[in-house]
């Protein structure tokens, strides 16, 4: 193995204390266990303006977000599903990066849903990543019935979900290492 890779977490909610934020934290911890360094953008502390809003392209947070994204070797996305797709928070973040920042890098996608599991949000994030010239790994994770998925400490109730998360993280890290 060469240098330690950096995985950037991109959260589809403002709060990392949400169920979706918890899933992202768990995924980043699994990436660290697989040997990666992790970083994560904090939407509460440093919110991004809506793309296209007045003076948004000169916003200091936008430049910092783009710099962080460019410094990363790989990305772990986690979004709640709202009305059949990724959250507006996630879409806005993806709209602020270009293939010059994130292209030819490795991506992984995860989602949380209030109801039954489906792959709508995963597919939409995968499509956005491909438009950004990203290489999305085949492993993905959708956590349905999210209010019943975690115990009081925030761990998965179903051990099989934890195993899938660890396999996703290992694939993200090892695939990125192979491509560097």
Quick recap of the structure?
The protein has 180 residues and is an alpha/beta fold.
What does this structure look like?
The chain is α/β, with parallel strands linked by helices. It has a single domain (6-179), classed as Flavodoxin domain (Rossmann fold, 3-Layer(aba) Sandwich), CATH 3.40.50.360. Helix content is 40%, strand content 21%. It contains six helices and six strands; from the N terminus they run βαβαββααβαβα. Strands 1, 2, 3, 4, 5 and 6 form a six-stranded mixed beta sheet that branches. Helix 1 links the parallel strand 1 and strand 2 (37-40). Helix 1 (19-33) packs across helix 6. The longest helix has 21 residues, at 159-179. The chain is globular and about 45 Å long. The relative contact order is 0.20.
Keywords:
alpha/beta, Rossmann fold, six-stranded mixed beta sheet
Shape: globular
| Number of separate strands | 6
- Beta fraction of the residues? 15-25%
For CATH, the homologous superfamily is named as Flavodoxin domain
Please give the count of helices: 6
**Count of folded domains:** 1
Structural class: alpha/beta
Order of helices and strands: EHEHEEHHEHEH
Outline the biggest β-sheet. 6 strands, mixed
Multimerization state: single chain
How would you state the average pLDDT, rounded? Answer: 96
Q: Which value, in Å, is the CA radius of gyration?
A: 15 Å
Through-space gap between termini: 10 Å
Helicity range of the residues? 40-55%
CATH class: Alpha Beta
